[in-house]
Automatic annotation (TrEMBL):
It comes from freshwater metagenome. The keyword Repressor applies. Belongs to the Fur family. Gene3D superfamilies: 3.30.1490.190, Winged helix-like DNA-binding domain superfamily/Winged helix DNA-binding domain. This is Unannotated protein. CDD domains: Fur_like. The lineage of its organism: unclassified sequences, metagenomes, ecological metagenomes. The keyword Lyase does not apply.
C-alpha cells in the first residue's frame, strides 16, 4: 500500500542519498498510526519483526531527512513522531516529569498566532532568524497527580 507519506519519504530520503526501505516504511507507518509520540520499545512492540539496532539507525536517518521529530527529555527514552512538515499539524507536548508520558497539545489558532508573534519578536531581538518552534510543557500528568 503506497501512501502520501511514502511519496514524501521517498523524495526526502533520495535528497539525503538514502532509500525508502521496508523497515523505514514500517517505522513511518507505526508513527502515523500512533495516537501520540512513541518510544523505541513501543515501536518494537508494534513491529516485532524489526531489530532494535535497525530501529535506532533508521530513526536517525528519518530524523535527518526531516521525516521524524525526536522529543528527548533527559535520561528517559526519547519519543518520536512524524515531523510537522509532513503532518501539517502544528502542535506541542505535555511531558510528565514523573512517569515520562508525552502527549500532544494543540493550541487554538489565536493562541498559536500570539505565541508565534512573541517568539519571533524574542528571536529577532537576539538577532536570530526563527524558522519554527516547538513547545514542551513540563509537569505531572493527571495520573501522577492523583497518585500523590
Amino acid at each position: 500500500m503506497v501512501t502520501d507519506i511514502d511519496d514524501i519519504a521517498l523524495h526526502r530520503l533520495r535528497k539525503d542519498g538514502q532509500r525508502l526501505t521496508t523497515g523505514r516504511q514500517l517505522i513511518l507507518r507505526t508513527l502515523q498510526e500512533a495516537d501520540g509520540p512513541v518510544t523505541i520499545p513501543m515501536i518494537l512492540q508494534r513491529q516485532p519483526t524489526l531489530a532494535q539496532s535497525s530501529v535506532y539507525r533508521n530513526l536517525a536517518v528519518l530524523e535527518h531527512a526531516g521525516l521524524v521529530s525526536k522529543i528527548s527529555m533527559g535520561d528517559e527514552h526519547a519519543h518520536y513522531e512524524l515531523g510537522e512538515e509532513i503532518t501539517h499539524h502544528h502542535h506541542h507536548h505535555t511531558v510528565c516529569t514523573s512517569c515520562g508520558k508525552v502527549r500532544d497539545v494543540t493550541l487554538s489558532a489565536a493562541a498559536e498566532r500570539s505565541l508565534d508573534k512573541a517568539l519571533h519578536e524574542a528571536a529577532a531581538g537576539a538577532g536570530f532568524e526563527l524558522q519554527r518552534h516547538r513547545l514542551d510543557l513540563l509537569g505531572r500528568c493527571a495520573e501522577c497527580v492523583a497518585a500523590g
